[in-house]
Amino acid sequence: MKVVIDTNVFVSAIMNADGAPRQVIRLCLEEQLVPLISNALFAEYEDVCERDSLFDDRFIAKEERAALLNAFLSSCLWIPIYYLWRPNLHDEGDNHLIELAVGGGASALITANKRDFAQAELLFPQLEIHTAGEFLIRRKL
After folding, report:
1. Which residue segments constitute the domains of the chain, with CATH numbers given?
2. Over the stretch 22-63, which tens digit does the pLDDT of each residue have?
3. Which residues share a beta bridge with 124?
4. CB-based contacts of 111: which residues, under 8 Å, 6+ apart?
């Protein structure tokens, strides 16, 4: 199953070993899910992983974050984006996630901010948007 993993889910997976985001990333690393990636999402992952201030209260070195990112990227399917759909989301910076999901034929977008995707002007009914926990529950059904 092809999925798009929002940056907030990836960061949560790094910060919390016991949470649903970590389980989703584990499924990707075990090749049970195929995470899609684009230039924009790659740049976002890389930028966030390099922010030491974000991880100050965690004992995760920059090298460890880079190693996890590299392992995750090795499981990703790179999707070139040729067409910008612009669903006009509340957070303009999230449009690239929808474009990646549609361009790559993803079944689901996994995010911690579902509400940011709720008021889109352009809808894609074939794309399910879930939190990591919701996705794991639906996957078991």
Report:
1. 2-140 (3.40.50.1010)
2. 999 999 999 999 999 999 999 999 999 999 888 888 788 899
3. none
4. 6, 8, 9, 97, 117, 129, 130, 131
